[in-house]
Amino acid sequence: MKRYSGIIAEVYLVLIREERILLLRRYQTGYEDGNYSLVAGHVEAEETCKEAMIREAEEEAGIEIDYENLEVVHVMHRKIEKKKRIAFFLQPKKWQNEPENREPDKCDDLSWYPLAQLPKNIIPYIREALKNIKEGIRYSEY
Question: Residue 95 in contact with residue 63, Cβ under 8 Å?
Answer without folding.
Answer: yes
